[in-house]
């Protein structure tokens, strides 16, 4: 079925992980895939650039259709394979509104996470400032508290947009997992922690768990103080 | 019809403009709306924070459904009012794939535009670096060239995702308009310019043209050198 699909991906990248979860949920196993190394800058290789001119992962193709943005790939897969696997866009108006709001507002969380975790990677040495680091951390702390608050309103065993698993979970979960991987405390953020623990046992999530996280279960501690 | 909708917005903000174009296209005129001033920091007022906890515009409500992210609002409106006005998600697989890819990859363009246009606004004085300004400009120039290239493949009179106007145009056009407002040259980027000129006469776009752009048709010249 999925032999006409190709995914070039990097381990641990939330955008790549989203596409892999969506493919699992839509029962599209068996696609062509290749794990590339960010450290070796393989995302800047010709193989990637031929599909994704920005040299970013994921690079994803279905036949001649190119969908490199994780949101684009997930929405496309749900639209193309609606009746395959669970329906990832709820019918209810209320659930649909909540799904769209959460899945797009998580861009704030992922930006703020990256600004903290990848500060040294993104900002050249001569341009670094303690004041910027402090501000980035404050912005992230405020954002994480907002999400803990959202999850306080989610019933136990429910998902981000209601009783059913949806695209909001496909999109948001890898970002939450990333925060815990970098040391966020499940004690200080119990609702986020409960969601994380429920989601990590979902078959589509287990089947796509970042391989280098499995090899090395101990993550970073950048977010330990949060 | 649209009396149960409320939009708080700022003039010229591409995310606000998207929602307004979508509302026009879906024939949802007559919604409650209030123009707020970024300069007076009205986006941080209680009125906004009650709907959008990040204090950002747009802040948008339909009944009890809150959709503050422009993508969320546009997708929700299309889903809720599919048969009203033109269908904004094409049926064709190819067109749909292209629509999703373009509407999400434009986040790269808007980020890179903001990094250049709002550098002084975003970066406190003591943290500014010429090397960062130079890098931001290079990244933006590369990105703009990529989009000029995309438009070279769009047939004259066609839209971003094919023969029909779609969500890709709703989402991408305000970003392109923004670039021209800040001085991008239609001579140097003729394909982007042709798209801009075609789109600005579309009734939904004309009806929602940023009021302070009308009052003061002369924009900035930050992008004149690009």
From TrEMBL, chains A, B:
<dbReference type="InterPro" id="IPR010987">
    <property type="entry name" value="Glutathione-S-Trfase_C-like"/>
</dbReference>
<dbReference type="GO" id="GO:0016034">
    <property type="term" value="F:maleylacetoacetate isomerase activity"/>
</dbReference>
<dbReference type="InterPro" id="IPR040079">
    <property type="entry name" value="Glutathione_S-Trfase"/>
</dbReference>
<feature type="domain" description="GST N-terminal">
    <location>
        <begin position="3"/>
        <end position="85"/>
    </location>
</feature>
<feature type="domain" description="GST C-terminal">
    <location>
        <begin position="92"/>
        <end position="226"/>
    </location>
</feature>
<dbReference type="Pfam" id="PF02798">
    <property type="entry name" value="GST_N"/>
</dbReference>
<dbReference type="InterPro" id="IPR036249">
    <property type="entry name" value="Thioredoxin-like_sf"/>
</dbReference>
<dbReference type="GO" id="GO:0006749">
    <property type="term" value="P:glutathione metabolic process"/>
</dbReference>
<dbReference type="InterPro" id="IPR036282">
    <property type="entry name" value="Glutathione-S-Trfase_C_sf"/>
</dbReference>
<dbReference type="InterPro" id="IPR004046">
    <property type="entry name" value="GST_C"/>
</dbReference>
<dbReference type="Pfam" id="PF14497">
    <property type="entry name" value="GST_C_3"/>
</dbReference>
<dbReference type="InterPro" id="IPR004045">
    <property type="entry name" value="Glutathione_S-Trfase_N"/>
</dbReference>
<dbReference type="GO" id="GO:0004364">
    <property type="term" value="F:glutathione transferase activity"/>
</dbReference>
<dbReference type="GO" id="GO:0006559">
    <property type="term" value="P:L-phenylalanine catabolic process"/>
</dbReference>
<dbReference type="GO" id="GO:0005739">
    <property type="term" value="C:mitochondrion"/>
</dbReference>
<protein>
    <submittedName>
        <fullName>Glutathione S-transferase rho</fullName>
    </submittedName>
</protein>
């Amino acid at each position: 079925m999925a032999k006409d699909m190709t995914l070039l991906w990097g381990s641990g990248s939330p955008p790549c992980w989203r596409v892999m979860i969506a493919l699992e949920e839509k029962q599209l196993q068996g696609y062509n895939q290749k794990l590339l190394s960010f450290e070796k800058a393989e995302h800047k290789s010709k193989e990637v650039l031929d599909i994704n001119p920005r040299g970013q992962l994921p690079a994803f193709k279905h036949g001649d259709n190119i969908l490199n943005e994780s949101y684009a790939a997930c929405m496309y897969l749900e639209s193309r394979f609606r009746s395959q696997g669970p329906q990832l866009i709820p019918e209810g108006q209320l659930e649909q509104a909540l799904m769209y709001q959460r899945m797009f507002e998580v861009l704030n969380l992922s930006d703020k996470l990256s600004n903290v975790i990848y500060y040294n990677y993104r900002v050249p040495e001569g341009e670094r400032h303690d004041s910027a680091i402090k501000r980035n951390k404050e912005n992230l702390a405020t954002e994480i508290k907002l999400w803990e608050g959202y999850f306080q309103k989610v019933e136990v065993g429910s998902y981000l947009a209601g009783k059913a698993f949806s695209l909001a979970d496909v999109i948001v979960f890898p970002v939450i997992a990333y925060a815990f991987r970098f040391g966020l405390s499940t004690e200080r953020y119990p609702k986020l922690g409960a969601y994380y623990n429920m989601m990590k046992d979902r078959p589509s999530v287990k089947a796509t768990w970042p391989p280098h996280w499995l090899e090395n279960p101990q993550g970073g501690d950048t977010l330990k103080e949060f």
